[in-house]
Structure formats: structure tokens, C-alpha cells
């Protein structure tokens, strides 16, 4: 009851605020920050936000174990908040939210002709990569991007035909590091540094070797601002300050469309809002859930989601990028969420209260 009372109070505050925008605000061209020191800012009202309600949304995020939240509109920082001793330079793990960076690199290699989505994974990793015998021959790069390899976590057993069943399989995803390295004739860290991180100024982002899945791979560790840069690149379809840096625009946009019929809310390593149904990480036997993942959020929102509520949200219709880093939010429960959590919809309920007049046609 207290929660709903607070939301109603926020709505009332938004309605009464002196700087509440009354219509969609026309704005400037996109800003592409050359450095953190040169990152432009914009007042909330100029970006279509009510400042009181937006501050309340960030206050709530801070109560939910957040260490960093960045809200950027057309590349300009609208709001930025840090807790727990963090600053704009503090690094934290992106965990599975970093999968989206891997997707961008993979599609850049596809754009260059170094590999094809239809390539069998064994073309690049050799026979025996999955330990599932000849059944692995039908598993392609596209299947790994869609979380539809058909293998179980051990990579030894085929539990569903490739492409027919969504299963959030981290050991299978970890094969993407080797595929990219083989196709790009360099190590994965070298490729992602040269093609993505350095060109867009993600200078605080590192790759840390990780074998938590039982397979060799990497975890991206970086600042909230760095992750916001990647969100800006994404909303500009791989363009940065006029230059097409990553893949071709149509291919990169395709990553944020449904990758199969079994999960209408998953693209190529991106989570998608607005689908008629959605599936979440867990057993193959988990039921499909009706409706979108985040009912309070815009239907065109796409999300990079990681363990313990690591979040990057991009919203094309609002030219909006939102990053949240920190520890698991209390609202998400006692079990650490692998991706989708209760934090998402609760946060977006509050963010949309700060966007008066933008709900129609977006939810």
C-alpha cells in the first residue's frame, strides 16, 4: 500500500511541477562525447522530463542498491547519480549485459565478410567444440546469438532442435568469443578494443578473463558512462559522429528484433520489450509468459541485462539511454536475477511518471 501511495504522490508532483513539459520537446542533434570531460548536459525539462519526478526516480534507484545511474537524451546527460563511493570513473562488471557488445562485434565481422550468420560454429572452432557429436554440425552463429543452440549447459546433450527453442545458455554463448577471434584473426579483446571500445571512447572498459561457466571467455568491466556510450552507438545504428563504425545500420538494427517465435522478447543477445509474450532465463520447461517484459516501459525499449541488476536500456522513440550499475536490488528478491528482474518494471514506472505526455502510443 505504501508503494502505491508513493507512486501517486510522484504523479501529483509531476502534475504540479513548474517545469513540467507540456508537449514533446524538439531537440538538438545527437551529441557524441569525445571525452568524459567534454560530455554535454541538458536540463531535464529540455529533454521532456519533469525534474522533480526524475529526481524521485533516481532517489528510489539509490535505495535499491544502485551505485550508478546515467540518463542520457540524444547523447546529452540529463541526470547522473552515484552512491557507495562510486564516481563517473568507477568500473563495475556488466556481466551478461555485456553480451550486447559481443553481438555488435560479431555483426561487424559479418559486415566485413569475415563470417556469416549461417556459418556452422564448427567452421570456426573445429569439430568437438560442443561435445555433442555430429549434432553440433547444425548449430550456427545465428543460433548462438539467439540463445537457440539446442544444447544444455554441459554442451554435451541436444535437448531441442536448433532454432526451435529459446534457452538462455551461457556456456553456449561463451563460444562466441572463440568464433569472433577465429574469424577476425586476433584475440577477442584486441578485436573489441579496435572496433568498438577505442573508436567511441570507452576508455574505462576492460575485459577480464572468466571461466565461471566452465568455458573460457570474458566479462566486460567498465563505467556507467562507458556503457551509455555504447547505448548511444546502438541508437545511432553503429554510427558515431557521422562515421559508420560498427557493422551496417540495417544489420545492427536487426539485433533488436525478435530472433525467433519461441521468445518474441529476445533478439541477438538483446532483450526486447513490447512482445506479445516473453520467456526468461531458466529451464527449457519454463512456460511462456503472456505480455511484454516491462509493461510500464515504452514498447520499443531494448535492454542489455546482467546478473545482479546490471542494466542498459535504449529507447529509440525517446532517443533515450539509461544505465544502472550496482548490486542486486532488494525489490528483485533473495535470488540474484540473471537478467530480467522486478527492478526493471518498477524503475520504468517511475521514469515514465517523469515523462508526462509521452505514454500514449508508447506503452
Automatic annotation (TrEMBL):
Entries under Gene3D superfamilies matching the protein: DD-peptidase/beta-lactamase superfamily
UniProt key word Hydrolase: yes
Keywords for the protein's UniProt record, in alphabetical order: Hydrolase, Signal
Keyword Signal in annotation: yes
Signal peptide: 1-23
Protein name: Serine hydrolase
Species of provenance: Pseudogemmatithrix spongiicola
Domain Beta-lactamase-related, residue spans: 65-276
InterPro entries assigned: Beta-lactam-related, Beta-lactam/transpept-like, Diverse_Enzym_Activities
GO MF, one example: hydrolase activity
Amino acid at each position: 500500500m505504501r508503494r502505491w501511495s508513493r507512486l501517486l504522490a510522484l504523479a501529483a508532483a509531476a502534475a504540479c511541477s513548474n517545469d513540467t513539459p507540456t508537449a514533446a520537446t524538439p531537440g538538438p542533434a545527437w551529441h557524441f562525447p569525445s571525452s568524459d570531460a567534454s560530455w554535454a548536459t541538458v536540463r531535464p525539462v529540455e529533454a521532456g522530463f519533469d525534474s522533480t519526478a526524475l529526481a524521485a526516480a533516481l532517489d528510489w534507484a539509490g535505495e535499491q542498491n544502485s551505485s550508478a545511474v546515467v540518463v542520457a537524451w540524444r547523447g546529452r546527460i540529463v541526470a547522473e547519480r552515484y552512491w557507495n563511493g562510486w564516481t563517473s570513473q568507477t568500473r563495475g562488471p556488466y556481466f551478461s549485459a555485456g553480451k550486447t557488445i559481443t553481438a555488435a562485434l560479431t555483426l561487424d565481422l559479418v559486415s566485413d565478410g569475415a563470417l556469416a550468420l549461417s556459418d556452422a560454429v564448427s567452421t570456426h572452432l573445429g569439430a568437438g567444440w560442443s561435445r555433442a557429436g555430429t549434432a553440433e554440425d547444425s548449430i550456427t552463429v545465428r543460433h548462438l546469438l539467439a540463445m537457440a543452440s539446442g544444447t544444455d549447459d554441459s554442451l554435451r546433450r541436444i535437448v531441442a532442435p536448433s532454432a526451435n527453442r529459446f534457452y538462455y545458455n551461457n556456456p553456449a554463448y561463451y563460444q562466441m568469443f572463440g568464433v569472433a577471434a577465429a574469424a577476425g584473426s586476433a584475440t577477442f579483446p584486441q578485436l573489441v578494443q579496435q572496433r568498438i571500445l577505442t573508436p567511441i571512447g570507452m576508455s574505462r572498459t576492460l575485459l577480464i578473463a572468466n571461466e565461471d561457466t566452465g568455458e573460457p571467455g570474458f566479462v566486460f568491466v567498465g563505467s556507467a558512462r562507458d556503457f551509455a556510450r555504447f547505448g548511444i552507438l546502438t541508437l545511432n545504428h553503429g554510427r558515431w559522429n557521422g562515421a559508420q563504425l560498427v557493422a551496417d545500420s540495417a544489420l545492427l538494427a536487426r539485433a533488436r528484433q525478435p530472433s525467433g517465435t519461441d521468445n518474441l522478447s529476445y533478439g541477438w543477445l538483446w532483450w526486447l520489450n513490447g512482445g506479445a509474450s516473453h520467456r526468461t532465463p531458466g529451464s527449457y520447461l519454463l512456460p511462456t509468459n503472456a505480455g511484454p517484459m516491462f509493461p510500464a516501459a515504452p514498447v520499443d525499449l531494448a535492454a542489455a541485462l546482467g546478473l545482479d541488476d546490471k542494466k542498459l536500456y535504449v529507447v529509440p522513440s525517446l532517443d533515450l539511454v539509461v544505465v544502472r550499475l550496482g548490486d542486486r536490488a532488494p525489490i528483485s528478491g533473495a535470488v540474484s536475477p540473471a537478467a530480467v528482474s522486478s527492478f526493471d518494471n518498477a524503475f520504468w514506472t517511475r521514469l515514465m511518471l517523469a515523462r508526462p505526455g509521452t505514454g500514449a502510443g508508447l506503452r
